[in-house]
Amino acid sequence: xxxxLGEDRRVQQFWDAYAAGARVGVKEFTVSKFGDGMNLADxxxxxxxxxxxxxxxxxxxxxxxxxxxxxxxxxxxxxxxxQNSPRCIVRILQVDIKPLCDVDERFAWDEGxxxxxxxxxxxxxxxxxxxxxxxxxxxxNDRIEVVLERFEVVWPPELSDRP
Length: 163
Description:
The chain is of the alpha+beta class. It has 5 helices and 5 strands.
């Protein structure tokens, strides 16, 4: 567990059910809430559960400035909604770090937002990161480095991307 949300009893019970059911010996996981508000967190968690969202983007500085470990392929994350309720567990398949301007169409599609186009994705993330920059006091430009994660849903079984 990487943060206080991982200490939430509901999140821990959700993880424990997965670990027992899938016979996973791994004890470490992160907790991820997408977006910057309850409604957006609910919408994005629902997109994961519904199969539309299979990728996520975060600023590299979110890790480096806070001393957090970068995600790694093979790692697990419990996805929570706006009320911090666990919705599913994902296994990270791939992690890349690159400038925001170098994100491609395929990644935008995997993110699953709007019409899944690169144009929509760039506009949405420009607005999102600018809100974050205004709150936290840093400048955002198209060369800012981002962490791009692709993942698959592994729990609960009825939502799993694999049989």
